[in-house]
Write a structure and sequence with these properties.
The complex is a heterodimer of chains A (about 650) and B (about 250). Chain A contains 16 helices and 21 strands. By secondary structure, chain A is an alpha+beta fold. Chain A has 4 domains: about 260 residues, 3-Layer(bba) Sandwich (FAD/NAD(P)-binding domain), CATH 3.50.50.60; about 80 residues, no CATH class; about 130 residues, Succinate dehydrogenase/fumarate reductase flavoprotein, catalytic domain (Flavocytochrome C3, Chain A, domain 1), CATH 3.90.700.10; about 160 residues, Up-down Bundle (Methane Monooxygenase Hydroxylase, Chain G, domain 1). The N and C termini of chain A lie far apart (about 50 Å). By secondary structure, chain B is α+β, with helices and mostly antiparallel strands. In chain B, a hairpin with a 6-residue loop joins strand 1 and strand 2. Chain B is elongated. The termini of chain B are far apart. The chains are: A alpha+beta (about 650), B alpha+beta (about 250). Chains A and B meet through helix 2, helix 4, helix 5, strand 13 and helix 10 of A and helix 1, helix 2 and helix 3 of B.
Chain lengths: ~650, ~250
């Protein structure tokens, strides 16, 4: 609980409110400035934002929760396969240390390691908590939580609820937050678009401005700390596996206000997406975990029905190239292998960007029980039954490993992240925290399947605790931000809106989005080269110019969906530039970032001890000396300024390259 | 070959107090379109059948894979998710209307807050002392119990069942089928049942279970095939037992 009411008049002025809590409407009168409690704003109501909200509310601190839509509709509901935690219930002697090792190696060492230690150590406790909250986890006959196999690991470590695990976790935390809403500790602003931070003279976050989507009205809100939990940015690539609101715009907004971004060039391309018009719907990695096999016909242009192609004429390339892990290699490896088979060997089905993901050898009853939700989705959208015919898939833009840079405090005794510290998940803007997919932590250069629901939940919890720790310190000095700071930021945002509303430059915001997506998928995709990346940067510059000349077809303020989209496309272009610039400058291959020119090829059939392999290892070490660094992007008027920062590799220093053969 | 089109007839309304009107749109056909992908095309090319450039149609959508519940609307007379309404399976012209049981915002977009308020009313959560680890799991749950609970916990709060229910409308107090399904879900959990009485008392009150007219429309339109009528039956039995307990045990 909050220990005592703050007394500072400065502080009270800052927390003054009229009408709906949190709203700033006019100048403070003395009687209203008394006994105001500190409060925290959370932007984004997916798994990360809801966990942060829950933790803060539990400690008695009021939370204002902002979301574009009812939080229950957040993109976390699209996560399918499961959540990793070592419960060791399968007789495989699984261990937390192995989870740490898999996560660090899966990310190709490009993540600060102390927080990963906490992530994996606290995962089982988090799962137990979810269990108590009533998540409908799938069960074994004994009634305990079942676990399945996922990519990049050798043990069954993924807890799941059918094939809609994200939805089930999201709903459960949503329910817990609704309980706190019923107590009055949480106030939801659903249907509001976060526009900017309100910063005081010292650059400290003291609130936000947001736009009510129905009326296009802009308003400033006061807070003592702000947490941003706004998810991924895959819409920067046009079509992706993401929901249509996952634009990354809020992250771009705080970035342009001074929050540093890190490792944005590391975008996960999920190997098994269903190619589509409007989005590339995801077919969970659980398909491979449950025995799914990826293949193409051995013969180029073999147009036979897949069921008529005999076993020996099928090329199970993942199983041949990576016998140790087979179909459950990590996502970056699988996506590259698919591109190699299709684009370099010309083995795509009918010459197109498609390969088979085959589950037909598994019993229907088993598949329905373990993967029901996504099989239903495939049937709906592809019109074919995956129990009868192999699914058609191709890599699709999925997850952003990079994002807003966040700090952590290291516990010198344990070598892990300190249990509670105002530094954990703090961004480079004081008073601003970030959690969930929009931050850059935990996953390095490639995320392992089923680690995202874990990191979203865990980081939300940590960010909530950190923000509370931060405002406890803050209340001693007080928040002396004058109302004029809020009013001027609100005015600035209103002016941006009216600028867009009155602009007659002739550009269409939706067309710009398609063009941005086409450019990013062409030049900043699975396989990259510097020529293509230069082209991308050039193209992004042009799009940026054009995005200043958008004409809206919506002319009125009410229900004006084009206005918020116009602002979002401008922000997506900003992020695209950060992604492309980081990629252009990083001349190496690491995790999801691949440039053939700089590839260190593993000598085929050679393993440790072999002189050829040792030579390769020496080169790999030299490359790490040069490139095992976080890319840090700082916003300037002329685009991102890139610098590099050391990675904390104190838990598991890299001694040998990732090898999934 | 003549060029193929997709033909829409959309019920539009510029705001809650404006008049409603129909507007038609034709767009080029291509395979594998769904209603959301078409609306996306139309917002980029907002030209109606008369060739007039108009304000783009306003609608709600997010996940586009039928798990978030955002894009409910009435398509050719049936409330359903627009993202999974495939054009190739729909008769043309395709009519799109907003759901009628919720306050309208604009065009096809409505405000479903009443559903979320109902979830609060029936305490649709499992009581826990806190979100910290207590080093214990929940009580064991058999795979059969889990699979029944899972079916109900996939409710997306999309509102299709509420739209189809003749008893649920702006002037009625009926809580509607979806929250009753959630009451069943939470009453069936080993610790969730600690609030069972509270939930039942809400559903025994005005606007509760007795307002159900047994039209059974809810189950026909649920995009997730949730057996809502089973839940209504089950909660009906539970409230009867509760009524008896209230009479004799107190």
């Amino acid at each position: 609980m909050w220990p005592a009411e703050p007394k500072s008049t400065d502080y009270c002025r800052a927390a003054h409110r009229l009408g709906v809590p949190g709203r700033l409407e006019g100048v403070a009168r003395k009687s209203e400035t008394m006994a105001a409690k500190p409060r925290i704003i959370v932007v984004g109501g997916g798994l990360g934002g809801l966990w942060a909200t829950l933790r803060i509310a539990e400690q008695g601190v009021p939370v204002d929760l902002f979301s574009l839509f009812p939080v229950k509709r957040s993109h976390s509901c699209c996560a399918q396969g499961g959540i990793n935690a070592v419960l060791d219930v399968k007789g495989q002697d699984d261990s937390i240390w192995q989870h740490i090792v898999d996560t660090i190696k899966g990310g190709d060492y490009l993540a600060d390691q102390p927080p990963i230690k906490n992530l994996c150590e606290e995962a089982p406790g988090l799962i137990r908590t979810y269990d108590r909250m009533g998540v409908t986890f799938s069960r074994t006959p004994e009634g305990i939580m079942d676990q399945r196999l996922f990519g990049g690991v050798k043990n069954k470590r993924t807890a799941f609820a059918g094939a809609t695990t994200g939805q089930q976790l999201l709903y459960t935390v949503d329910e817990q937050v609704r309980y706190h809403e019923s107590l009055g500790t949480v106030t939801k602003y659903e249907g509001w678009d976060f526009l900017s931070l309100v910063l005081d003279d010292n650059g400290v976050a003291r609130g936000v401005t947001a736009m009510e989507l129905s009326s296009s009205k802009v308003q400033a809100f006061k807070a003592d700390a702000v947490i941003i939990a706004t998810g991924g940015l895959a819409l920067t690539y046009g079509r992706s596996t993401m929901s249509s609101n996952s634009t990354g715009a809020p992250a771009a907004r705080v970035y342009q206000q001074g929050a540093k971004c890190a490792n944005n060039e590391f975008i996960q391309f999920h190997p098994t997406g269903m190619p589509g018009h409007d989005k590339n719907r995801l077919m969970s990695e659980a398909c491979r975990g449950e025995g799914g096999r990826i293949w193409v016909p051995r013969k180029k242009g073999d147009n036979r029905d897949p069921r008529d192609i005999p076993e020996e004429e099928r090329f199970y390339f993942l199983e041949e190239w990576y016998p140790a892990y087979g179909n459950t290699v990590p996502r970056d490896v699988a996506s590259r292998a698919i591109c190699r088979a299709v684009r370099h060997m010309g083995l795509g089905l009918n010459g197109q960007d498609v390969v088979y993901l085959d589950l037909t050898h598994q019993p229907r009853e088993f598949l329905e029980r373990r993967l029901g939700g996504i099989l239903e989705m495939y049937r709906t959208f592809a019109g074919e039954d995956p129990c009868e015919r192999p699914m058609k898939i191709f890599p699709a833009t999925h997850y952003s490993m990079g994002g807003i840079w966040v700090d952590f405090e290291k516990d010198s005794q344990t070598g892990a992240m300190a249990r509670i510290s105002p530094r954990n998940h703090a961004t480079s803007v004081p008073g601003l925290y970030a959690c969930g997919e929009c931050d850059f932590a935990y996953h390095g250069a490639n995320r392992l399947g089923a680690n995202s629901l874990l990191s979203a939940s865990f980081s939300g919890r940590v960010a909530g605790d950190s923000a509370v720790a931060y405002i406890k310190n803050l209340s001693r000095t007080g928040n002396g931000t004058p109302d004029s700071a809020y009013q001027s930021e609100q005015k600035r945002q209103e002016e941006i809106n009216s600028g867009i509303m009155t602009c007659d430059g002739g550009e269409n915001a939706f067309t710009l989005h398609h063009q941005l997506g086409d450019l990013m998928r062409e030049c900043v995709f699975v396989e990259r080269d510097n020529e293509g990346l230069d082209k991308a940067l050039q193209g992004i510059k042009q799009l940026k110019e054009r995005s200043r000349k958008i004409s809206l077809d919506h002319k009125s303020n009410w229900g004006n969906q084009s206005l918020s989209w116009a602002r979002q496309i401008q922000d997506m272009i900003v992020l695209a530039e950060v992604i492309a610039k980081g990629a252009r400058l990083r001349d190496e291959c690491r995790g999801s970032h691949y440039k053939a020119e700089f590839e260190l090829k593993v000598p085929e059939g050679k393993f440790e001890g072999d002189p050829e392999y040792e030579k390769y290892k020496a080169k790999w070490k030299a490359n790490n000396d040069k490139w095992l660094k976080h890319t840090i992007a700082t916003h300037t008027e002329n685009g991102p300024e890139i610098s590099y920062k050391e990675v904390d590799i104190s838990v598991l220093p890299p001694t040998k390259p990732r090898d999934y053969r | 070959m003549a060029e193929k089109f997709i033909h829409f007839k959309i019920k539009r309304q510029d705001g809650p107090n404006a008049y409603a009107y129909w507007e038609e749109f034709k767009m080029p056909y291509s395979p594998a379109h769904n209603v959301v992908s078409c609306l996306m095309y139309l917002r980029e090319h907002p030209v109606n059948i008369n060739g007039d450039r108009v304000e783009p149609v306003v609608w709600d959508s997010n996940c586009m894979e039928e798990v978030c519940g955002a894009c409910s609307m009435i398509i050719n007379g049936t409330p359903r998710q627009a993202c999974s309404a495939l054009i190739d399976e729909l008769e043309q012209p395709i009519t799109l209307e907003p759901m009628t049981k919720f306050p309208l915002i604009r065009d096809l977009m409505v405000d479903r807050s009443r559903m979320f308020e109902a979830l609060m009313k029936i305490k649709a959560w499992i009581p826990v002392d806190g979100s910290w680890d207590i080093h214990r799991h929940a009580p064991l749950i058999s795979p059969n119990e889990q699979s029944v609970r899972y079916i109900f916990s996939r409710c997306m709060t999309c509102g299709c069942c509420m739209e189809a229910c003749p008893q649920f409308h702006p002037d009625s107090k009926f809580i509607g089928p979806a929250p009753i399904g959630q009451a069943k879900l939470h009453n069936s959990h080993p610790t969730g049942k600690f609030f069972k009485e509270d939930r039942l008392h809400v559903l025994m009150d005005e606007g509760g279970i007795t307002d159900c007219g047994n039209a059974q429309n809810c189950i026909k339109v649920c995009p997730k095939d949730i057996p809502l009528t089973d839940a209504i039956g089950e909660i009906g039995r539970q409230t009867t037992m509760q009524w008896l307990r209230d009479m004799f045990v107190k």
